[in-house]
Design a protein that fits this description.
36% of the residues lie in helices and 18% in strands. By secondary structure, the chain is of the alpha/beta class. It has one domain: Thiolase/Chalcone synthase (Peroxisomal Thiolase, Chain A, domain 1). The strands form two sheets. The chain has a nine-stranded mixed β-sheet with strand order 3-2-4-7-1-8-11-10-9. A two-stranded antiparallel ribbon has the order 5-6. A hairpin with a 4-residue loop joins strand 10 and strand 11. The chain starts with a helix and ends with a strand.
Length: 386
């Protein structure tokens, strides 16, 4: 057993506050004011204030993320982390906060993020070119990031016989959940036939296979048992966390059908002492439908190559045996450039029983699984109703 697992077993840690920023298209706030609103609401759920925060975790928030966010919030924390793991950063931050709190480096950790990429039309879709990309990808016109995911989907189809209709099952499940969420951006009905008929973007991916572009963000608060007892809302226990990384450039990927989720899932599930059979709610990163398919396989919900058949018949949808993307996910609810923090917020709400019409009955264990870059990083968190 690792030192972290032993420390957390002795000193259990909790998410005691979780809140979204304004979502969708936010014209009357800045990213910093959005963070301020979410932090205020999350801390209120925790029965805490900004004065209590001594650990700050931020990604994609300016050139000096924690410094600028801390300045705006008026706090000077003693533990800081702006590790850039893309959309997986926020699940990774949970693991980092566990280590920091267990080691006495901080007592109250605030993880936060906000983006106005839709309103500002500012998302930088093409990362800084690497030598590999300049030599082996750009000359052939591969669009980044969607071209990477399209190649991944094509490879999965080639190796395992996965079909577009099976990918469509994922988009339809996300939309079914979004129709139960009044905050979701896309709530119109979506059928398999609709998804298959949607506009091609980069074959084999069509519009229904691709995430939204919205404004949004959120905040969560993590602390130990002593402060969690005073929380205004039910505290959610953190059972385990893990992270992993693979290749930045697709030409360097060892296997397009295997993501770093194999590593992060093994670490998180091992620390939590659970198996996929124990999971009541799954919040996978759904930047694209193929991202979900790989997560299901790599986290062990089904064998490699069986993701397509696994999702058939509405297994991930309301009423299915593995409720997934229960907010509507990045495909239908919100995708503000980095989705990972919103996955954690939805998992907390499900475990608290606060999800309204989309509530999964008797949800006790939830998994949030973040993905960053172009399947370059992954981080997994296991949460439980205490």
């Amino acid at each position: 057993m690792s030192d972290l697992v032993e420390a957390v077993a002795r000193h259990p840690l909790y998410i005691v506050g979780a809140a979204e920023t304004p979502l969708g298209e936010v014209a009357d706030e800045s990213e910093l004011s959005m963070v301020g609103l979410a932090a205020r609401d999350a801390l209120a759920e925790a029965g805490l204030t900004l004065r209590d925060v001594d650990g700050l975790f931020v990604n994609y928030m300016g050139e000096e993320g924690t410094v600028q966010v801390g300045e705006y919030l008026g706090i000077e924390p003693r533990y800081l982390d702006s590790s850039d793991l893309g959309g997986a950063a926020f699940e990774a931050f949970v693991g980092h906060a566990m280590t920091a709190v267990a080691a006495g480096r901080c007592e109250v950790a605030l993880i936060t993020y906000a983006s106005r990429q839709r309103s500002l039309r500012s998302r930088r879709l093409v990362p800084a070119p690497s030598p590999f990309r300049q030599q082996l990808e750009d000359p052939y016109g591969l669009p980044v990031p969607i071209g990477y995911y399209a190649l991944t989907a094509a490879r999965h189809m080639h190796e395992f016989g996965t079909t577009r209709a099976q990918l469509a099952e994922i988009a339809v499940a996300a939309r079914a959940w979004a129709r139960l969420n009044p905050k979701a951006w896309a709530r119109d009905p979506l059928t398999i036939a609709d998804a298959l008929a949607s506009r091609p973007i980069v074959e084999p991916l069509h519009r229904s296979d691709c995430c939204l572009v919205t404004d949004g963000g959120g905040a969560i608060v993590i602390t130990g048992a002593a402060r969690a007892r005073d929380a205004a809302r039910a505290a959610v226990r953190i059972l385990g966390a893990g992270e992993g990384q693979g290749a930045w450039d697709i030409t360097q990927a060892r296997d397009l059908t295997r993501s770093p989720g194999v590593i992060s899932g093994r670490e998180a599930f091992g620390a939590a002492g659970i198996t996929p059979r124990d999971v009541d709610v799954l919040e996978p990163y759904d930047s694209f439908t193929i991202t979900v398919l790989l997560a299901l396989e790599d986290l062990g919900f089904c064998a490699k190559g069986e993701g397509g058949s696994f999702v058939e018949g509405g297994r991930l949808a309301p009423g299915g045996s593995l409720p997934s993307m229960t907010s509507g996910g990045g495909l239908s609810y919100c995708h503000p450039g980095a989705l990972g923090l919103l996955l954690l917020i939805e998992a907390v709400r499900q475990l608290r029983g606060e999800a309204g019409e989309r509530q999964v009955p008797d949800a006790r264990i939830a998994v949030a699984h973040g993905v960053g870059g172009t399947m370059s990083t992954a981080a997994t968190v296991v949460l439980a109703r205490d």
